[in-house]
Amino acid sequence: MPRTLSYITHLQIRFSDCDPLKIVWHGNYVKYFEDGREAFGKAFDFTYLEIYSKNGLSVPLVHLEMDYKRPVSFGETISIEAKMVDDPAAKIVFEYVIRNSANQVLCTGKTIQAFVQIEKNELQITMPAFFEAWKNKFLK
Q1: Superfamily of domain covering 4-134
Q2: What is the pTM of this model?
């Protein structure tokens, strides 16, 4: 069983997230995954700015999958669970569950991010030392 670490954040659905039928437009779930990753990073000292400024790396998405289960509308509050799943490769794997206030699953998904050395725009094929140390500290 891989080591995991999760964090849950909450968000109220904005008017600008909705389509003319007053439900969240499907493309906004990608933003909600990002909101979950950013909240996770703040909670566990793993932010994009830190990765960039201290290590000279970016972490672009290289894989995204989503499964929509039920709609959500303007004004509702959702919870976004972002769970980092340990992987031996040089990549960051997150799984997501978005729920409404009744705890019904609205959407599930997964993202994979790669490490890219910014100066040379070069994909890192080995695990960055800082990430290995971070995983050993936080992932259980």
Answers
A1: Hotdog Thioesterase (3.10.129.10)
A2: 0.94
